[in-house]
Structure formats: C-alpha cells, structure tokens
Amino acid sequence: MLILLSPAKTFNFDLIEDHNTGTLSIFQRDTKALINILQTLSEKDYQKLMKISPKLAALNKDRHLGFAKTSKKDSMQAIFAFYGDVYTSLRVEDLTEKDLLFAQDNLRILSGLYGILRPFDLIKPHRLEMGTALKNTRGDNLYQWWGSKIADSLNKEIESHGSKIFINLASEEYYKSIKGQLLETVVTPIFQERKGSEFKVIGINAKRARGLMARYIIKNKILKVDKLKHFSSAGYKFNEKLSSQNTLIFQKN
User: Diameter of the chain by CA atoms?
Assistant: First the structure.
C-alpha cells in the first residue's frame, strides 16, 4: 500500500536539530533543471506566475537562487519540514521510530519541484505548486514537465508491496499529475461535513482530515482498505451506503 499526499506551502525547519540525516529524492536532475529555470525569473515574474505578493516573490526568488549550495544545514527531511494543514494534523513530532519507518516505506508526497518525496528525503524551502504554468523544455506547465515520470515510479514501486493499492489523500491539483496513469487500484477517501441539510467537502477541514487519515494509517500500520473504514477521528464516520470500491465517504455532523 502506498499513501499519496500533497506537499505544503509552508515550512518549519526548527522542529528537530539533526539536519544531517536523510535520503535523496529520486528525481535530482529534474529538480535541478526546474531550479535553473526558476533562477532566470524576476521578482515580477514570480508574482505573476505564482500569484503571490511582492514580499513572497522576493523570498522565494532568494530561496531558489541559493538552492545550489551544498550545505545540509538548510535542508530537512520532508515529513518534518512541511507545515501546512495536512501536516499539523499528521503530528509528525510524536510519531515513533517504528511509525516513521512505516511512513518511509508506505507514504509518498507528490511535489511540483521534486516529483515524488519519501518522508526522509531532504528538501529545502521552496515554492512551486504542481498547477504552476511554468514554461519549460517539455511544455507549458509542470504536468507536461513530469509527464508519466511520477506515475511510472509509483507503478514500479507498488510491485514490491504485498498490498498493491494506492490510498489517494492528495489534492486534485497534485493527483492530476498521475491521474489515469496508475496501474493498480486507487482508493480515495472523501471527507464531508453537514452544512444545513446537505453534506459538503469543506476545503480546509478536508485537508486536516487527510492528515488525520494518514496518521491513522501510519499509527496502526494499516495495509488493508477495509481497516480504513474504522477511521473516526474528529467526529468522522464511514458511510458505507454512499461509498464504493474506489471511493470511501466519511461524514460528520
């Protein structure tokens, strides 16, 4: 089983002191090539391309210009570095060593800059969302840049797993980079909450729920889809009637 997550826009590089251990991401050349493109952009280019403020444009341009430095002091394992809603719910700071090793084997983070990240892969602060229309030598956006590379890697990796299932906890923006390309079963949990007389997906709460689900899988070392149905964090309950083989619906009042 492989859990698929999106990355985060925000980072926390102060969580742990040891920045020197970790693994290298698998698409090093592709990442370097993207950084080379980003280093040619002006701050105004950043603002327009990423739809961000002048302050954020300056920050990220500086980050990318300094990317080639070999020092590991400004690098951290991905699972510790990301600090968005998904990752605050994942609460990596209190995962045990066994939990983290399980995550290293069974969790993959989709990334606009790195392609795929394992939890211990070293990353630096950056900003390059998968939906960014960054022109490159392979096309007009990152979906064309990555092509089938991400999916090919995931398909090859899942072959060595006893449970050949992908648990899609990524956002649509990131899942689009592999959609229709995965060869094994993909199961997508959907998190809804009551709004008036209807149940709806509320963006920020759904992000947090995806982090809680990832934590639930990691803490319980789950390798079978049926066990996901027992997830009940934050008041969510599995709705069997609305669910299907590939979509698990969780709702809360």
Answer: 56
**Tokens for 57?**
């444009």
Residue 71 has pLDDT above 70, yes or no: no
Q: What stretches of 137-218 adopt beta strand conformation (E)?
A: 165-169, 185-195, 198-200
Domain span holding position 162: 2-252
Q: How far apart, in whole angstroms, are the C-alpha atoms of residue 252 and residue 32?
A: 43
Q: Which of 97, 119, 91 is nearest to 106 (CA)?
A: 119
Q: How many CB atoms lie within 10 A of CB 206?
A: 21
User: 58, 59, 36: which is closest to 135 by C-alpha?
Assistant: 36
How many domains does the chain contain in total?
1
Which CA distances in Å does 103 have to 22, 59, 118, 156, 179? 14, 31, 8, 18, 22
- Does residue 217 surpass a pLDDT of 60? yes
Beta carbons of 171 and 230 less than 8 angstroms apart: no
- 188 contacts 168 by C-beta, under 8 angstroms: yes
Mean pLDDT of the chain: 95
d(CA 201, CA 66): 39
DSSP H or E stretch at residue 22: none
Neighbours of 209 (CB within 10 A): 28
Residue 96 corresponds to which tokens in the numbers above?
Answer: 């045990």
Residue the block writes with tokens 């899609």: 168
pTM for this predicted structure: 0.95
